[in-house]
Specification:
binds zinc ion; alpha+beta; Metallo-beta-lactamase, Chain A
Length: about 160
């Protein structure tokens, strides 16, 4: 599995193209459908995954669903991953965990040395605390690819969780 990161849109959202052989997944189609489509042109697009429905993560979603005749978050692709509910930043926040690859796509749940803001419309601090506590049970060597900014490793983030609130 290979991961390509496109930084798209006015809020510099990370859109990830995950490839395996000739297949790919698009995670968070943030913006600029034509750029995403050209990155995927040598692959069969099997799925579009959305971590949550904030505008800066779905700017190109309609165009891509139309282009590939796919509905997002149907999870009918051939990739092997777990969908974990991680509410807090948004009530619909999901994390996609590729166990065999030690890799997690966290959207705006966990960032490098911080977590997502919890003062938005569907945010909940108590839900965020529960999600952070729950994610501690995943291995320290898990690579984290967040919705904004650089990637990190779960073991480096766990000790910081208690300091966020
Ligand atoms: Zn968000």
């Amino acid at each position: 599995m290979k991961i390509k990161n496109l930084v798209l849109g006015p809020l510099n959202t990370n859109c990830y193209i995950v490839t395996k052989d000739n297949k790919c997944l698009i995670i968070d189609p943030a913006y600029d459908a034509s750029k995403i489509i050209s990155e995927c042109e040598n692959y069969q697009v099997e799925g579009i995954l959305v971590t949550h429905h904030h505008f800066d993560h779905v700017g190109a979603l309609d165009a891509l669903e139309h282009k590939y005749n796919l509905k997002h978050n149907t999870f009918k692709d051939s990739f092997n991953y777990e969908v974990i509910k991680t509410p807090g930043h948004a009530s619909d926040s999901l994390t996609f965990y590729f166990k065999e690859e030690n890799t997690m796509f966290t959207g705006d749940f966990i960032f490098y040395h911080t977590c997502g803001r919890c003062d938005l419309e569907t945010s909940s601090i108590s839900a965020m605390k529960e999600s952070l506590e729950m994610i501690k049970s995943y291995p320290d060597n898990t690579l984290i690819y967040p919705g904004h900014g650089k990637s990190t490793i779960l073991g480096a983030e766990k000790p910081l969780f208690d300091h966020y609130f």
